[in-house]
Amino acid sequence: MPKEIDIMRLLKRLFDLDNLIADKEADKKMGFKIDEEVGLMSLKKERASLLKEIPIEYAEIYERIKKRYPLAIAEVKNGFCFGCFQQLPTEILTKSNEIVSCPNCGRILFWREE
Amino acid sequence: MNFASLLSRERINLELKSTKKEEVLKDLVYMIKSKTDAELIYSTLLKREELGSTGIGKSIAIPHCRSLAVSKLEIAVGRTVKPINFNAIDKKPVSLFFLIIAPPQDPGNQYLITLGKIVQISKEITKGNLISKTKTPDEFISLINEIEKGISKKR
How many residue contacts between A and B have a Cβ separation below 8 Å? Predict the structure, then answer.
């Protein structure tokens, strides 16, 4: 099984990819060219392949949270989950090297490397 | 919102030597981030280009995406020494690039507002044939300032 840091890297790629797909309508409105067939298909293929690379328990958490919130990953800042803006308990704040979810909203938490 | 105020001379390179799309994207990304953050942005930008080129025509491209790698709006500008193939909408090569990367959460919609502003500024740049006019980053920022003043006077 890959290390948690590598799994987090894959989850971040998946997250960025999902935002690209989510933003395509706004891009179109702004006049950018969007290839709804080949281009979108390629992104969806990449998404499927990323999901396969991520251990199933984490992939399932991500997909479950994504159904509830458009942004399934949230940054931890000053002890708060920046998804739901609730203060995180100390036991979570000591786990910055692990993949953990916010106990309030369930979003996967990430700490920015300074 | 003043776009020129978001620019910094350290993030403007008007002499990019790269000749390929991937190289230019990498040059731009490494102006704002390094290591794993840069790699994440780069891979997302490549995917964005697969969805459709961000080359808006008339030698200008606006590569952009939202990414977890940034915590605030980040902008870089690059101009290649020679125009490069970027699969732009008008099929013509591109030489001026505005890179814009936004954090996923963008409460004030600053990302879309900035993107819209760059599209508007780009039109003025092409109208006045100004792509190669500036030689230094400071001159470039002054030019953008002038263009923005012109746009707001028209309103």
Answer: 77
